[in-house]
Design goal:
Layout (H helix, E strand, L loop, with lengths): L1 H15 L4 H8 L3 H8 L7 H11 L26 H23 L14 H12 L9 H7 L2 E6 L9 E6 L4 E7 L4 H17 L6 E3 L6 H4 L4 H14 L2 H12 L6 H11 L3 H10 L5 H8 L3 H9 L3 H13 L4 E2 L1 H22 L10
Parallel strand pairs: 1-3
Antiparallel strand pairs: 1-5, 2-3, 2-4
Length: about 375
């Protein structure tokens, strides 16, 4: 029984990265016949072989032996089982269940997006933009985009001690995906978190649930985390700030005079990204020298943005962070729409049931 579970998991993980048995065996220095025996449950690997396989597939060894748990259950195995973080995760679970019930009540169930095989982060960003018909234009509402493509989003204020920027859950049985975004983060960073979780949705469903530490959103720290986090972070940058569009704007309007801090703020506002994400994108694409990047990175953008552009996202970021800390979850627009539609439908049914029939008597 254990060998069969291991074999099933091994085959699924191999197929997720798009390798044939032969190519997989060659990469590990094993025979394709041996891999076939493992996947059919007819052979048990040694610990050294299993360690080599799990390392190559970027999986914990436990992945090959643990029975599949309910989608949200894996969120509650951490050390903070009784604290505020657990209560917030339980709210997230309840929100997901309610969301699916609203979809059932209204007959508006979302289809899931396709899952991508082996591909580079930049290529995935390009392919997904092409699939969605986005071209090179900015994404004006990343939360709505996620929702309409099957990733249900809620923003909740999460406690600082929980060290959670975002959470991704995929319910394989019901083919439903959910994203939790920490509403205590600045709006620009929430956008980046949404794009990061969208990458997990497109690539890492089998690893659900995924809890992202705030450090994975920082380029200088993300290299300390599993490759999937580095992939998701690179995807988020390219998805939100297409290099071709960035080049077009810089070459057309900004490059002749050299980029100043105000230009960075202008571009940040245009693409709807955070200031730091914009700075990194400009540096990585060769538009900002390292010394200039370091200088701008240390500056606080809110006041200067307000001076140049008026009532700005910078001041709104500080205001929203204060409000979110005092508020509950922020449901998505689509969730609110479904809730209103379901409530209207319930009222119509109640009125119809209460209406008199042709004999003047109420329906029983």
């Amino acid at each position: 029984m254990m060998n069969m579970l291991l074999g099933t998991r091994l085959k699924r993980a191999r197929e997720e990265i798009g390798l044939s048995q032969g190519a997989f065996a060659k990469a590990l220095g094993l025979s394709s016949e041996y891999i076939s025996l493992l996947e059919s449950g007819k052979r048990t690997p040694s610990f050294d072989t299993l360690t080599r396989i799990s390392s190559f597939l970027n999986k914990d060894i436990a992945y090959f032996f643990e029975e599949k748990r309910p989608a949200f259950e894996g969120l509650f195995s951490g050390p903070d089982n009784d604290g505020r973080a657990r209560r917030e995760l339980l709210k997230f679970k309840a929100y997901g269940e309610k969301y699916l019930q609203l979809e059932e009540d209204t007959g508006r169930r979302l289809d899931i997006a396709p899952r991508y095989g082996p591909i580079s982060p930049g290529r995935l960003a390009e392919e997904e933009r092409r699939r969605l018909g986005l071209g090179q234009e900015p994404i004006r509402d990343i939360f709505g985009l996620c929702e309409l493509n099957g990733l249900r989003v809620v923003r909740q204020p999460l406690p600082e001690e929980a060290r959670m920027a975002g959470v991704f859950v995929f319910d394989e049985e019901r083919k439903a995906a959910f994203a939790l975004i920490n509403a205590n983060e600045p709006p620009g960073l929430q956008i980046q978190i949404a794009a990061h979780l969208y990458a997990h949705y497109l690539k890492d469903r089998a690893d659900s649930p995924i809890i992202d530490n705030p450090d994975v959103m920082i380029d200088e720290y993300v290299s300390l985390y599993p490759p999937r986090e580095q992939f998701a972070q690179a995807f988020a940058s390219r998805f939100l700030i297409p290099p071709a569009k960035l080049q077009e704007i810089v070459e057309k309007d900004l490059r002749s005079k050299g980029l100043g801090f105000e230009d960075v703020l202008f571009l940040k506002r245009y693409f709807g990204a955070s200031t730091r994400a914009m700075l990194r994108s400009l540096r990585n694409n060769g538009y900002l020298a390292e010394a200039r990047f370091e200088e701008f990175f240390k500056r606080s953008p809110e006041d200067r943005e307000a001076e140049v552009f008026g009532n700005t996202a910078g001041h709104e970021e500080r205001r929203s962070r204060t409000l979110f800390r005092k508020s509950r979850a922020v449901p998505s627009d689509r969730y609110r729409l479904l809730a209103a539609e379901a409530a209207a439908g319930a009222r119509e049914r109640d009125e119809r049931d209460a209406a008199p029939d042709r004999t003047g008597e109420n329906h029983e």
